[in-house]
Structure formats: C-alpha cells, structure tokens
Design goal:
This protein is 71% helix and 2% strand. The chain has 7 helices and 2 strands, in the order αααααααββ. The longest helix is centred in the first third of the chain and has 48 residues. Belongs to the PRA1 family.
Length: 207
C-alpha cells in the first residue's frame, strides 16, 4: 500500500519537474527572441541611415562650384535646414566625430587600448553567438552575456573614455551644427537613383 501511494506522488513530482523545465525553456526562448528582435531593429535602423552611398564627397559638403553655398537662414528656414542637413550629411558628421575621437585618443594610449579591447570583445561576441548558445545547457543565457558586456562597456566609458568622448562630441558637434546651420540645402543635388538626372530641391520645400 505504501509503495502504491508513493508511485503516484513520484509521477506527480516528475510531471511537475518536466513542466517547470519546459516553462524555463520557453522563457529562455522568449528572452532570446526579444534580444534578437531588439538587435535586429537597431541594426536595420542603422543600415537604413548609415551606408556607403550616404557618404557625401568634400565638394558637396563645402559647396564647391556653387555661387552661395553658405548663408544665414531666415527664422522660418532654420529648423527645416538643420533637419535636412543633419539627415543628408549624417554619415559625414559621424565620420568627422570618429576622426576627432581617434585623434583625441591618440594622446591617451591607455584609453585607446581599452576602446579597442571593448570593440574587439563586442565583435567576438557577435561572431561567436552561436557557439555561446551551447552554454545555455549549463544555465548561462545569452542575456547574461549581454548584461556583462554592457556593464563592461559602461565601466570603460565611465572611467577611460568619457573625457575623450566629451571632447570629441564638443568639437565635432560644434563643427557639424555650424555646417548644418549655414549650408544652403537648396543647392544640394539629390540622387535617389544613379540612373536619374540631377534634381535640385526647390526653395519653397525648405521654408
């Protein structure tokens, strides 16, 4: 009788354990899907705005050959001009920030080394994501590695990169804002398709 009563209890415990394991697996899969979705959205948004074709050459940036490439906008033109130029020259502005940051880090070798190590760690993490999934069997989830990488990145930014980052943002940001403010976008040539002819934006669209 005692053994007969214990068997259903053991079966119930085994069933409960399997249900808990299944629920844990479902939760892990849900967390992985969320992480993949967020990363996918970030990468997709970055690719839409930052790509090789969005790089403007020096002649377009400086308005070489134009009669009045730079001028003072009227008050109604300020906001549309800034919005347009910041979107149109976004890759060039990012490149300028990168160059200024690199030049700043050259004078701080230890900070540069930490940045390179952090960037290499993120690159290795992205490349080796499939291999890290095997560690899920040992109780490590992908989000644990993401949190650890974010914490390490935060430490590097706070203690090693913050002064250089503030300097680079100040210098490049000031130059970019001045350029976006004075650059006349009515003379900028848009090329939505390389096979199409050049189209100049009318002035009434930017007022």
């Amino acid at each position: 009788m005692g053994e007969a009563q214990q068997r259903p209890e053991q079966r119930h415990k085994a069933s409960a354990g399997s249900d808990y394991a299944a629920a844990t697996c479902v939760q892990q899969d849900s967390d992985d899907i969320k992480i993949h979705s967020i990363l996918g959205q970030v990468v997709s948004a970055a690719r839409q705005r930052i790509h090789v074709n969005a790089i403007r050459n020096v002649f377009v940036c400086m308005g070489v050959g134009e009669a009045h490439p730079f001028n003072i906008p009227t008050p109604p033109q300020i906001a549309p001009r800034l919005q347009h130029n910041l979107q149109y020259f976004v890759v060039n502005y990012i490149m300028l920030f990168t160059v200024v940051l690199f030049c700043t880090l050259v004078f701080h070798p230890w900070s540069l080394l930490c940045v390179l190590a952090t960037g290499g760690a993120w690159g290795a993490f992205i490349v080796q994501r499939k291999h890290l999934q095997h560690l899920n069997k040992n109780g490590f989830k992908e989000e644990h590695f993401v949190y650890a990488m974010l914490a390490a990145t935060l430490v590097v930014f706070s203690f090693f990169l913050l002064p250089s980052l503030i300097t680079a943002i100040g210098i490049s940001g000031g130059i970019n804002i001045v350029h976006a403010f004075f650059r006349d976008p009515t003379h900028v040539i848009f090329r939505s398709d390389p096979t199409q002819t050049d189209v100049v934006a009318p002035i009434d669209q930017l007022v």
